[in-house]
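Protein data sheet
==================
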Amino acid sequence: MGFDLLNRRFVLHELREAVRAVSADLVFLQEVMGENALHKQRHALWPDAPQYAFLADALWPHAAYGRNAVYPHGHHGNALLSKFAIASHVNRDVSIHGHEERGLLHAEIEVEGTVLHAICVHLGLRESHRREQLRLLGEVLANEVQADAPLVVAGDFNDWRARGHRQVAAFGLSEVFEQAQGRLARTFPARWPFLPVDRIYVRNVQARAPTVLSMRPWTHLSDHAPLSVEIAW
């Protein structure tokens, strides 16, 4: 995160302004750099704080970070930014040994007396890996999320053939774009989106106005078009 879709231009400051303009109550982020010493040396405007803290700034006073990949010069993972208090969070390592590091960041967020469960997802590129990672997601839902609790599961599922979509539906979740528009949102690549790799699943909430943010500045800030939705319960 922090570079344009060709990884040529450092755009983290522009990305922060774009995210702030949306002003969502809750933001799900993938591949957020917690630390990167090489980039810090190369880019004069690289922030001293982790990327999620830099993006949160003063607009989101609460944040959770789950470290997925660790390397000699730093680490990256999933993050959640919230305008509401995060009561607890845990990062589940769902990496398949010897392949990409992936995780499920699960936070319990206190929203006006109710606990909202939010799970930020980044799954693998291989279908067999995603199948196992979704099985682990099902275990988290069964063991840690009450059946009647409001729940949002969102992120990069890398499930362009929608085969894992049926697996998620078996957990009792609905995908907000399919529910409202009859099909999954196409989000990749951002400038000419035709693959439905990113999703927002919900349970025990009402979702309306799902939107793909597929215009400028988003098309120049990421290789994925972001998604947004309004929820209530």
